[in-house]
């Protein structure tokens, strides 16, 4: 039987199969967001949003 566990991406909020992304601590980032984040230049207007979303991983862990 194939396990189709869905995880909510902390960046885009979409539900994706757990094998289509990565886990950092207890949070999930889908493959699409991961690819977009690593290709985003620090001067891009989206960059601060990605930084903010990544900080949520540590906030939830230390709460």
Characterization of the model:
This protein has 63 residues and is α+β, with helices and mostly antiparallel strands. It has one domain (6-62). 40% of the residues lie in helices and 22% in strands. The chain has helices at 31-39, 47-62, and strands at 6-8, 15-17, 21-24, 27-30. The strands form two sheets. It has a two-stranded antiparallel ribbon. Strands 3-4 form a two-stranded antiparallel ribbon. The longest helix is centred in the C-terminal third of the chain and has 16 residues, at 47-62. It is globular, with a radius of gyration of 13 Å. The model has no long low-confidence stretch (mean pLDDT 89).
Strand order of the largest sheet: 1-2
- State the end-to-end CA separation: 36 Å
- Total strand count, please? 4
Tell the overall outline: globular
Q: Uncertain spans, ≥5 residues at pLDDT below 50?
A: none
Query: How many helices does DSSP assign?
Result: 2
Largest sheet: 2 strands, antiparallel
Radius of gyration: 13 Å
Beta-strand content estimate? 15-25%
What percentage of residues falls in helices of 4 or more residues?
25-40%
Number of spatially distinct domains = 1
Mean pLDDT, as a whole number? 89
| Structural class based on helices, strands and sheet pairing | alpha+beta
SSE pattern? EEEEHH
Itemize the secondary structure elements and their pairings.
Layout: E1 6-8, E2 15-17, E3 21-24, E4 27-30, H1 31-39, H2 47-62
Short note summarizing the structure:
By secondary structure, the protein is α+β, with helices and mostly antiparallel strands.
Keywords:
63 residues, alpha+beta, two-stranded antiparallel ribbon, 2 helices, 4 strands
